[in-house]
Specification:
Length: 434
């Protein structure tokens, strides 16, 4: 027998789970929100480093993202203004080039135009991946698309560097997801990058998360990992790792894709979904903050994966006379989050003499409750398995940015799926279908 009973149990307290719990409790349902970590937020995490608050996980939002923007406006939370940058470094064919943002754009634009030429045709209605049969393109990896362009070493390096913030395992990441992302901004990759990686929230993601959670009457239990979720034909039983059994009429599972294989789900999900869960997504990138001595000229830098430990870097803030630079690597093995000398050497590839005083970061790939960063689907999963996982599995509903329709991998996608799951559960409960 289950020890306690609720209308809904929501598993995972990232943006998807918190949104679902808020919306369902607002409908008057009794909701229990379970979170494995000792904090809410999932793969967003505001913590202290260098004597100030920094984002160690997901960070950026945009006014073109309807779910996020609605909440920001509702809670009167503004965006922060990033540092103005006009200096760009890019590594290509063994040489570091430098110039203005316009210089870099002029080098990149013809190459991204070729890479993303079919983005709108493949995804003419980006919120509906089934609008066009993409079974052929879904077999293609990013690496295969790059190979097909027959670029010179120089041009391929320029293009790979431009993609490197979001591409870390080109042989394993499907090209379809990149095309979908570009299609959301009318095929313009540069425009997509602004929506996905430029504007932080003033006060951090924690400020928005707490605003949403503050509207919820859900009971929240932290440090409570889940082992099993079962739809037994009359309701859902959730079993925690301590053996507690919790009964609910419905459940919302808002866990990162790469952790779902650690949870027993009954009845078994469809085979394409099971394959996606078992294979996991391949993004193991590391996000590292570097405190650089002095208020240096703001810059951003790009390098192809495998040709420098730091693939992308950008000066983000001034702090106590120094400059804080956010860096992305292909994974923890490229350079560690605490490896000050390694990060410094990698940044000196671009900016000779730059001095890194301290570094900080979080190993999301090694974190048992994430096992990776944001999701980038393997070939075949974006338009095949992910849509199946978005459908109710009996009384079990799934949510999370990893399986979002359009904002896949981001805060917007997480909030959208949380709201969608909540609507589905509320409709089912109102209909008395349990």
């Amino acid at each position: 027998m289950a020890n306690s009973s609720y209308d809904v149990v929501v598993i995972g307290a990232g943006f998807a789970g918190v949104t679902a719990a808020r919306d369902l409790s607002a409908e008057g349902h009794t909701v229990l929100l379970l979170e494995a970590r000792a904090r809410v937020g999932g793969r967003t995490c505001v913590d202290e480093a260098f004597g100030r608050q920094l984002e160690f996980g997901g960070t950026y939002v945009h006014w073109t993202q309807p779910n996020v923007w609605r909440e920001l406006q509702r809670h009167n939370i503004p965006l922060a203004t990033p540092l103005e940058i006009d200096k760009v470094y890019w590594l290509a064919d063994g040489t570091v080039h430098s110039g203005s943002q316009l210089d870099h754009t002029n080098a990149v634009a013809p190459l991204t135009a070729r890479f993303f030429a079919d983005a709108r045709a493949r995804f003419p209605v980006p919120h509906d991946v089934a609008a066009v049969d993409n079974s052929t393109i879904e077999k293609e990896s990013i690496e295969a698309r790059l190979d097909s362009l027959n670029l010179s070493v120089h041009d391929r390096d320029v293009l790979e560097g431009a993609l490197a913030t979001l591409v870390h395992s080109p042989g394993e990441q499907g090209v379809a997801q990149l095309l979908l992302w570009a299609a959301t901004t009318f095929g313009d990759w540069g425009a997509f990058l602004e929506t996905a990686g430029y504007w932080p929230i003033r006060g951090g993601t924690k400020r928005l998360l707490e605003a949403v959670l503050g509207e919820s009457t859900a009971e929240v239990r932290l440090s409570t990992p889940v082992d099993a979720i079962e739809d037994d034909g009359s309701g859902v039983v959730v079993t925690t790792r301590t053996g507690e059994r919790i009964r609910a009429r419905r459940a919302v599972v808002a866990l990162p894709l790469n952790t779902l294989s650690d949870v027993s789900i009954a009845p078994e999900v469809a085979q394409p979904v099971r394959a996606m869960i078992e294979q996991k997504h391949p993004v193991r990138t590391a996000k590292i903050w570097a405190r650089v001595r002095g208020e240096i000229e703001p810059f951003c830098a790009f390098a192809p994966v495998g040709k420098n430990p730091v693939n992308t870097a950008r000066a983000e803030y001034r702090h106590d006379g120094d400059t804080l630079v956010v860096c992305f690597t292909s994974g923890p093995s490229a350079v560690g989050t605490e490896d000050r000398e390694g990060v410094q050497a990698a940044l000196r590839t671009f900016v000779p003499g730059i001095e890194v005083r301290e570094t900080a970061g979080h190993d999301w790939a090694g974190d048992p409750f994430s096992q990776g960063a944001w999701a980038h689907h393997r070939p075949g999963h974006l338009t095949q398995a992910a849509p199946q996982l978005r459908e109710p599995h009996g009384r079990i509903h799934f949510a999370g940015g990893d399986i979002a329709r359009q904002g896949v991998g981001g805060i917007e996608g997480a909030m959208e799926t949380g709201a969608t799951a909540a609507r589905g559960v509320a409709t089912a409960l109102a209909a008395g279908s349990d």
